[in-house]
Amino acid sequence: MNNKTLFISVAAFIGIIFIAGVMMYKSQQPSTIASEYLPALERIDAPEKGGQHAKVTIVEFFDPACGTCSQFYPLLNNLVKKYQGKVNVVMRYAPLHQGSEEVVKMLAAAHLQGQFWPAVALLFANQERWVEHHVSNPQRALLVIKTLALDHEQLDKDWQSSKVANIIAQDIKDGQTLKVRATPQFFVNGKPLIIFGYDELVKLVEAAVAEAY
Q1: Cα–Cα distance between 116 and 118 in angstroms, integer?
Q2: Lowest-pLDDT range, 14-28, 50-64, 124-138, 188-202?
Q3: How many domains does the chain fold into?
Q4: What is the CB-side half-sphere exposure of residue 203 using CA atoms within 13 A?
Q5: At 185, which CATH number?
Q6: What is the mean pLDDT of residues 57-65?
Q7: For a pLDDT cut of 70, what percent of the chain falls above it?
């Protein structure tokens, strides 16, 4: 085989690999989840912020003990600000870390007093105080939340109530239906973020905004 033939063969092989790579990339791009699973994205009274009439909804399944969730939190806020009135964020609980189920109950209880967002911001900002080796310490988390100006006695009653337990159970069930196995898991107008990353999330939101508006 002469050099020219070898060069053509290598070039053809590289071309085939490139085409295969493009096809694989396209096959991995987000597609809307099946219609029968769409109800699992929604729960009445789930914490949300953004535009009340926004046409783009980001649903995040999160664990307050998740370091990556903490890192994404300010970036998610930036998206809401950038697309003011056009993007809404809905938070769903996915307590995958040991001990986190009790902590999300506390967040749900804080939400009943209209204090979810300050509470989750505090927990993210102080993860080192209540998370050790990826294990949550609920009592330490409770002390963090109780630095907020809320009814502490009511908080204690609510986070241990059957009402809050049912809320968490529903989110866990919906997460299982949607095959949420790690946090954070994002869905934008029903499309899952398959290739994980902030840039990828931004692109998915940008595409949804462009399509909706």
Answers
A1: 6
A2: 14-28
A3: 2
A4: 11
A5: 3.40.30.10
A6: 98
A7: 85
For residue 9, give its domain range.
1-30
Q: Is 87 helix (H, G, I), strand (E, B) or coil?
A: strand
Cβ 62 vs Cβ 89: under 8 Å: no
Answer yes or no: do 58 and 117 share one domain: yes
Q: What is the average pLDDT across 122-142?
A: 97
pLDDT value, residue 31:
63
Q: What is the distance between the alpha carbons of residues 158 and 3, in angstroms, rounded to a whole number?
A: 77
Nearest in space to 54 (alpha carbons), one of 33, 91, 80: 80
Mean pLDDT for the stretch of residues 92-100: 98
Structure tokens at 195: 């290739």
> Would you state the structure tokens that stand for residue 177, as one six-digit string?
């239906």
* Confidence check: pLDDT of 16 > 90: no
Cβ-based neighbours of 54, under 8 Å, separated by 6 or more: 83, 85, 86, 87, 88
Q: Which of these, 72, 66, 71, 47, lies nearest to 57 by C-alpha position?
A: 47
